[in-house]
Design a protein that fits this description.
The complex is a heterodimer of chains A (551) and B (343). Helices cover 32% and strands 21% of the residues of chain A. Chain A has 551 residues and is of the alpha+beta class. In chain A, the strands form five sheets. Chain A has a seven-stranded mixed sheet with strand order 8-9-10-1-11-19-12, sandwiched between helices. A six-stranded mixed sheet of chain A has the order 14-18-13-17-15-16. The radius of gyration of chain A is 29 Å and the shape is globular. The N and C termini of chain B lie close together (6 Å). Classes of the chains: A alpha+beta (551), B mainly alpha (343).
Chain lengths: 551, 343
């Protein structure tokens, strides 16, 4: 009995103790074996930019970086380019189209559409909507649009045919191996007919973002668009619940607020003051260099697709002679410009097709950099020497349309004059005057730039003989031969495209109608907690990939 | 001449002034190199397409026709359509004007308030260390470039202290809506007023936070003129007999300074306020650019880059009329306060 009580007494205490110990041990075990708490993500990111939509975000008119950027977030094209890829033929991924085929002559492209994709009002997207979007641009023929500027319906697309509720066929006038690149660009986003009249552009409607935007199939919907006097002040993008792949977790951040700043200085200050999470387009080279040393922010480097080059007016003597053009091409010192003017944020370019793209070569290296011996000998053939120097009028744009144009011009002047047989006079004009001068063909040598419409060598190689640049090389036999090679490269199904572009570059080195100088590396700067920045060769700014952990 | 006749004369004189201004602007923008038509075509465009655009912009007509059509539109309150995006210029101007006006009002309050206060203090302590310091401060403020002073403030209060925003007009999504009662909607476009009408103190504080640096920058730069003007007028007035008499009667120095001397020294300051309003609107261009303030100054710079003739004309004419109106009000006030002006 005593033993029993004792046992009972002990057991009561022991039970309590054991339970207490077990609770503590279990608690400790639970605490230490719990998977670490996942990071908490910000619901909203603020993106600061100096950009503004130029006109509208209607794919039948928009033809500017920022307009296309907004269309890319809120719209959907037939196909898309895999983020982070080289944008090669194998890098296209399904978007509205699930798959596609092309005829052997590359003139008939058939796209099968995804079923169940819905506009905001829950109506399903069908092939009729695709045809409507393409035909609409052809009816509107807006002079500012990609379609009119690129001659989409004059040169390329003959008709769009609906063959099934979910199938659409494009009949082309000419073979086009680059057609997927073409339809992947934002000019061909599929619009909601309820917000896009068949014969009129969807204009900005004050206080009504929905009525201002004909696109609603993308990862985001535009919920606010504030403009003051034709210049954007603020925009809101919020996750689109109707996006066809929303279940996969796109977009990563629910809301993006876009704030517009007047210039690079204001944007940089806003970033450093913590007013914005992301600063993208445009910070200056000096800002980027400074920010690279700032431990409080992260600088992201992208791949450059924007290029700068020199143009010679071939209607002006002596640049009607290829030797004069080659002489100046040889005198250029690309590395010095990239290092000094752009602080290493640009890369020397020896072909009009940028590095990392099919068809890129180093052809212009044949002329050398700062090769003043070649300059002297070529100009000597034309009768120029130290006593009879070649007088060159070099023009640059002065209103900021191109980066650091005045500094570039000074460098080119120095490089040409280092030969001792060239004397350069610098001239400048703001962008409207510069464009007028270009068309009037009054500039002897001028700096120009190119930002691609679609990421394909086809969209670069033509600059050697483009009529709208007014260098007039197309009037020469070689210019016409070059154009023929370009057409062959872009169209023939079995064309050796890299080989043909290399041939074009080789001809260009001989004739130098334009001289490639450098490609500009794009940069974005973010707070340290921001991730998901992808800046590939497409130059697309994919907001749906961005996310930030809560600090 | 009675006050009414004086006002009528001044109004009538305003008309030729505005006419001269708009004629001058009309001609000067067309003399500028650069063609607004070509800015619509980056690449190839046929001569027919370019001509069509020229017709659409109304630039195919003789200059005199363009001028009279513009005048006719103006008579009906139509400032024309932008040559860049084809939206009505009047609408664009009125959407940007409240931001500029709000900045101008607060800058003027700072400039006048600080300028008069320091000017009076300076005259009060004539030839002392305080007087010299205030004078040097006034000169430095007047000489300092607006964008430079603005950037200094942005660096100190925004980047280093994180106290105030460096740019923009208000925190995203906080634009006040004004007063909404049923169908009644009252909105001035001035965020500080609209936030109060909305009854939202938080938005009012936010509006002030965003307004503080730009208006302080512009106000400080302008206050230099008011310091010097107030000081010199006060020094003259303080030597007059009635001030000595007031002091002899044993009135408080503050009463003598502000109640007697300053009231007499105020008239030239009032005139200067009218003149400075024009400078302030001009200066607002730089301030608006520095602080990304979405006002008319930014609009003008932007439109010049596009050779948007109608928008530039509209903006300058609007500024001109505004300045003429302010001058008119100042002149009338002046005439009211000093009947000798009407003689």
């Amino acid at each position: 009995m005593t033993l029993s009580r004792k046992v009972k007494g002990i057991s009561t205490t022991a039970i309590v103790a054991i339970i207490a110990v077990l609770v503590v041990v279990a608690g400790l075990y639970w605490y230490f074996t719990l998977p670490p708490a996942g990071p908490e993500y910000k619901d909203t990111l603020i993106w600061g930019t100096t950009d503004s939509v130029e006109n509208t975000i209607d794919p039948s008119q928009a033809y500017d970086f920022f307009g296309w950027c907004i269309i890319q977030q809120t719209g959907l094209t037939l196909v898309e380019i895999q983020p982070g890829s080289e944008a090669g033929p194998e890098d296209f991924i399904p978007a509205l189209a699930t798959d596609w085929t092309v005829s052997t002559d590359m003139k008939t492209w058939t796209f099968n559409l995804r079923q169940g994709v819905k506009f905001e009002d829950e109506t399903e997207v069908t092939a009729d909507d695709v045809k409507y979007s393409f035909d609409r641009a052809n009816v509107i023929q807006n002079e500012d649009s990609f379609q009119v500027n690129m001659g989409t319906f004059d040169i390329l697309i003959d008709s769009v045919e609906v063959t099934d509720t979910y199938q659409v066929v494009f009949h082309l006038k000419v073979p086009a191996s680059y057609f997927l690149q073409y339809v992947a660009c934002q000019a061909f986003a599929i619009v909601n007919p309820n917000y896009a009249a068949y014969d009129a552009i969807t204009e900005y409607a004050e206080g009504d973002a929905r009525a201002s935007n004909p696109n609603d199939l993308g990862r985001y919907v535009l919920t606010k668009w504030e403009r003051v006097a034709g210049k954007d002040v603020e925009m809101w993008l919020e996750a689109n619940p109707n996006y066809w792949d929303a279940a996969s977790g796109w977009p990563k951040t629910n809301k993006i607020i876009i704030k517009m700043y007047t210039d690079a200085t204001a944007l940089r200050l806003a970033l450093e003051a913590g007013d914005v999470d992301v600063a993208f387009r445009h910070l200056t080279s000096t800002d980027i260099e400074d920010l690279q040393d700032n431990p409080a922010v992260e600088v992201w480097e992208g791949k450059g697709a924007a290029i700068q080059y020199l143009i010679f007016q071939e209607h002006m003597s002596p640049f009607d002679d290829a030797r004069a053009r080659r002489a100046l091409a040889a005198a250029l010192d690309r590395s010095a410009v990239c290092t000094t003017v752009f602080l290493g944020q640009a890369k020397p370019l020896y072909s009009m097709i940028p590095e990392g793209m099919m068809g890129h070569t180093e052809a212009f290296k044949a002329l050398g950099d700062a090769n003043t011996d070649l300059t002297k000998s070529l100009l000597a053939e034309l009768g120029y020497d130290e006593d009879n120097k070649l007088a060159v009028d070099l023009w640059y744009e002065s209103s900021g349309h191109y980066p650091s144009s005045a500094d570039q011009a000074l460098f080119y002047k120095d490089a040409f004059e280092a030969s001792g047989v060239v004397e350069v006079t610098l001239h400048s004009a703001d962008w409207p005057s510069y464009r007028q001068n270009r068309n009037a063909e009054v500039m002897q040598v001028y700096i120009y730039g190119w930002y691609p419409d679609y990421i394909d060598p086809d969209n670069y190689a033509f600059l050697y003989f483009a009529t709208w640049l007014h260098h007039n090389y197309i009037e020469t036999a070689n210019g016409q031969a070059m154009e023929a090679l370009w057409t062959q490269a872009g169209g023939a199904p079995d064309a050796d495209r890299p080989g043909l572009y290399a041939q074009i570059d080789d001809m260009a080195v001989q004739d130098c109608p334009v001289i490639p100088i450098f490609s500009i590396t794009p940069y974005a700067v973010t707070n340290l907690n921001v991730e998901g920045v992808v800046m590939d060769i497409t130059q697309s700014w994919r907001l749906w990939l961005l996310y930030a952990t809560v600090e | 001449m009675g006050l009414r006749s004086y006002i009528a004369t001044r109004v009538l004189l305003t008309i030729p002034m505005v006419m001269l201004l708009l004629t001058f602007v009309f001609l000067i923008v067309r003399v500028l190199p650069g063609d607004p038509v070509l800015l619509h075509f980056e690449k190839a465009a046929s001569p027919e397409t370019i001509e069509l655009m020229r017709q659409r912009l109304g630039l195919d007509k003789p200059l005199l026709n363009q001028y009279f059509e513009y005048l006719a539109g103006l008579m009906h309150g139509d400032l024309g359509k932008s040559m860049q995006d084809f939206s009505p210029v009047g609408q664009q101007i009125f959407s940007a004007f409240p931001a500029t006006l709000e900045l101008a009002i607060y800058s003027m309050i700072i400039a006048v308030g600080l300028g008069i206060f320091l000017g009076v203090r300076s005259s009060q302590s004539y030839n002392s260390l305080q007087d010299h310091s205030i004078r040097i401060f006034g000169i430095v403020m007047y000489a300092i470039p607006i964008f430079f002073l603005g950037m200094i403030f942005q660096m100190i209060f925004g980047v280093f202290l994180h106290w105030l925003p460096t740019g923009g007009r208000i925190y995203p999504g906080m634009a006040p809506q004004g007063l909404n009662i049923g169908d009644l909607h009252i909105s001035t476009g001035l965020y500080t007023i609209d936030s109060l009408l909305e009854g939202n103190v938080f938005k009012f504080v936010q509006a002030l936070r965003y307004l503080f640096l730009p208006s302080l920058t512009l106000g400080l730069v302008l206050c230099g003129v008011f310091i010097r003007l107030t000081r010199s007028n006060m020094l003259e007035t303080l030597r007059l007999d009635f001030v000595t008499a007031a002091r002899a009667r044993g009135l408080k120095e503050k009463t003598v300074l502000y109640g007697y001397a300053f009231r007499n020294a105020f008239l030239p300051v009032l005139t200067m306020m009218g003149l400075q309003f024009a400078v302030l609107l001009g200066g607002a261009i730089l301030t608006e650019s520095t602080f990304s303030w979405p006002g008319l100054g930014r609009y003008l710079v932007d439109r010049i880059n596009f050779r948007d003739y109608t928008a530039i004309q509209g903006d300058v004419v609007f500024f001109g009329i505004l300045i003429a109106l302010v001058s008119l009000v100042v002149d009338v006030l002046y005439a009211y306060l000093d009947p000798r002006i009407r003689l």
